[in-house]
Design a protein that fits this description.
Elements (H helix, E strand, L loop, with lengths): L5 E2 L5 E5 L5 E9 L6 E8 L2 H17 L10 H11 L6 H19 L9 H11 L11 H20 L26 H10 L6 H10 L3 H5 L6 E2 L4 E4 L2 E4 L7 E4 L7 E4 L2 H21 L20 H14 L8 H13 L4 H8 L4 H31 L2
Antiparallel strand pairs: 1-2, 2-3, 3-4, 5-6, 6-9, 7-8
Length: 392
């Protein structure tokens, strides 16, 4: 004989045993705005005690105003909605990166999970798996795993904000420790060899300016003549050149990293180099005639168009290979500038502002080993002074 529905004494709902053997608890959640009728919801479980507990949790959260309506939406579906509707305010290159990480990693592992059943342990296992060999693919680095977590955390946080989740289950996950890679700046001998190698090269001035100002690759490719003051020897960095990371993607300008424009003062020798470069560019413009596209760039290609990262990268790698420094990256020119500046006596605050770092603490974190060497050099100079005054 079927069991009658029973009133739950601890909450506004009823419990019954279904014909399939499961237990069901029904409760009321507000009224339908269209019909005005009460909205009935159900929770299910294998035992009466399990269902009673779920019912009590639901009715208590309704009373406290913290109730979130259960959703059958999958993680995959929510990520599609998030990408389409909630990424309008970010850079196109960032949106593309998010899309790639979601497609390659998050959806294959968690896409089929129901959003409202997603828990911390499931996400933690996913992060842990990324750090191991997967189907013959090498493990991801701790930094890559942290980036994927950052994307997923934002998506889940938005789900919390609109009521699909009561809390963000990725919040309690632990991430692998990131060990900062040792930077490899060019030393004085390598810098001399590099400058000799690029003498007369089409990108000689571009590489040299990058080396002696420390500006990023995107910043130098997006540098405009109206940001360079050849009279007072300053350069304003207020944008960087980007290209959409899709087939046939177009170039566009984005704010500098950290959204932090800056003005740097350049060594007079570099200013002279830029002045000569401008004169040469004017000759190129006249020779190109109607083919020239005037974009105001300091470093365009032969007809005034934007230079591609790939073109600059390939040329740079050929140059460093010839001086037996195959592992050196374009970004290492920036490191070389920073190390040279610190060793020349620039204070950390000045170096931080010239590099466009968010804080001086970050600059110290990256280049702290240089200051340690400077401290040792200082101690040796003091010893020399002590020797002189004490006749040691």
């Amino acid at each position: 004989m079927p069991r009658k529905a029973t009133r739950n004494a601890q909450g506004g709902g009823s419990i019954r045993k279904r014909s399939d053997g499961r237990w069901e608890a029904r409760y009321t959640f507000g009224n339908d705005p269209g019909t005005g009728k009460q909205v009935q919801k159900s929770v299910y479980g294998k035992t009466q005690a399990e269902v009673r507990k779920k019912l009590q949790q639901a009715t208590t959260s309704i009373d406290e105003g913290t109730y979130t309506e259960p959703t059958k939406m999958s993680v995959s579906k929510w990520l599609e909605i998030w990408e389409a509707e909630y990424l309008g305010g970010i850079k196109p290159s960032t949106a593309f990166l998010y899309s790639q990480q979601i497609r390659l990693y998050i959806k294959p592992s968690l896409g089929a999970v129901r959003l409202d059943t997603l828990d911390t342990h499931t996400i933690q296992k996913f992060y842990n798996s990324l750090g191991k060999d997967r189907d013959g693919k090498p493990p991801l680095s701790p930094k890559s795993i942290k980036n994927i977590h950052g994307i997923f955390h934002k998506a889940l946080q938005q789900a919390v904000a609109i009521g699909y989740l009561r809390f963000n289950p990725s919040e309690a996950c632990t991430l692998p420790r990131i060990i900062r890679k040792e930077i490899k700046p060019l030393d004085e001998q390598q810098i001399t060899a590099f400058l000799q190698e690029i003498k007369g090269h089409r990108f000689e001035t571009l590489f040299t300016v990058a080396l002696f100002t420390g500006i990023r690759e995107g910043e130098i490719l997006g540098l405009m003549w109206d940001c360079v003051n050849l009279n007072n020897g300053t350069m304003r960095i207020d944008k960087q050149l980007k290209k959409e990371q899709k087939k046939g993607g177009t170039f566009y300008f984005a704010p500098p990293k950290n959204d932090k424009p800056r003005t740097i003062t350049i060594a007079p020798w570099v200013i002279d180099l830029l002045r000569a470069h401008k004169e040469k560019q004017e000759e190129n413009r006249l020779n190109a005639g109607d083919v020239w596209e005037e974009n105001g760039l300091v470093f365009p290609n032969e007809i005034g168009q934007y230079l591609s990262y790939r073109t600059v990268y390939d040329s740079f790698k050929r140059a460093v290979n010839k001086i037996d420094c195959p592992s050196v990256r374009f970004h290492d020119l920036r490191h070389s500038y920073a190390v040279a500046a610190i060793r020349s006596g620039d204070d950390i605050k000045t170096v931080q502002e010239n590099l466009g770092h968010a804080t001086a603490a970050f600059t110290l974190d990256v280049y702290g080993h240089v200051t340690e060497q400077m401290k040792q050099d200082s101690a040796q100079r003091m010893q020399g002074f002590i020797n002189s005054v004490l006749n040691l």
